[in-house]
Amino acid sequence: GESVGLHLPTLSVQEGDNSIINCAYSNSASDYFIWYKQESGKGPQFIIDIRSNMDKRQGQRVTVLLNKTVKHLSLQIAATQPGDSAVYFCAENYGGATNKLIFGTGTLLAVQP
Amino acid sequence: DSGVTQTPKHLITATGQRVTLRCSPRSGDLSVYWYQQSLDQGLQFLIQYYNGEERAKGNILERFSAQQFPDLHSELNLSSLELGDSALYFCASSATGGNEKLFFGSGTQLSVL
């Protein structure tokens, strides 16, 4: 029978190009955001995080931008490599004292050699 | 390697049965989380424990229960299994259970036949 699954947005880029993955979050009260990378058959792997008192944070080859006005988060990957191919999830923390991370549906990044 | 250990990696069982998934958090982490990842629902937060006590609850069915033991390992019990319970179950851990990044295990793939 037909399988039903999430339709993941896909971003296809050439090796060496910069990638931008976008995420709209849902709760204006969320104060902590994380990007995770998930490769096939593995658990989500932490990439970078940002708190709501910041609008930009840089890591190694990655930058996260936060726009609280429009509840938008983006992940920029510089000089994308084949090893960057994976599903990328943004997650927001609703919870304050708890750490109830709510994940978005994910974006599949496909890097073409 | 995230330092979070989950067993077993794969589990195949029949409808109506009961299974237990086990998780050992990273050394020093006090908080454990359980997530369910299915094709049609994405990554869903189930429950969080901190130092043996339940801290936050998400979309966890009444047929499911969890606990965190004094040595900080956790178990997720799934009973009266249905076909729709087939999914990847991830455990994650964090240091204090507050606004901080989670480290995920490799998951347990549950197949209910």
Short précis:
Chain A is mainly β and 113 residues long. Chain A has no helices and 10 strands.
Count of helical stretches of chain A? 0
Instruction: Give the DSSP E fraction of chain B (strand runs of 2 or more residues).
Output: over 45%
State Rg of chain A: 14 Å
Report the mean per-residue pLDDT of chain A as an integer.
90
Set out the fold topology:
The complex is a heterodimer of chains A (113) and B (113).
Chain A (H helix, E strand, L loop, with lengths): L9 E5 L4 E6 L7 E7 L6 E7 L4 E3 L3 E6 L4 E6 L8 E8 L7 E3 L3 E6 L1
Chain B lengths: L4 E3 L2 E4 L5 E6 L6 E8 L3 E9 L2 E5 L6 E5 L5 E5 L8 E8 L8 E2 L3 E5 L1
Parallel strand pairs in B: 2-11
Antiparallel strand pairs in B: 1-3, 3-8, 4-5, 4-9, 5-6, 7-8, 9-10, 9-11
What does this structure look like?
The complex is a heterodimer of chains A (113) and B (113). Chain A has 113 residues and is mainly β. Chain A is built from no helices and 10 strands. Chain A has strands at residues 10-14, 19-24, 32-38, 45-51, 56-58, 62-67, 72-77, 86-93, 101-103, 107-112. In chain A, the strands form 2 sheets. In chain A, strands 1, 3, 4, 8, 9 and 10 form a 6-stranded mixed β-sheet that branches. The radius of gyration of chain A is 14 Å and the shape is globular. In chain A, 31% of the residues are buried. Chain B is mainly beta. Chain B contains no helices and 11 strands. Chain B has strands spanning 5-7, 10-13, 19-24, 31-38, 42-50, 53-57, 64-68, 74-78, 87-94, 103-104, 108-112.
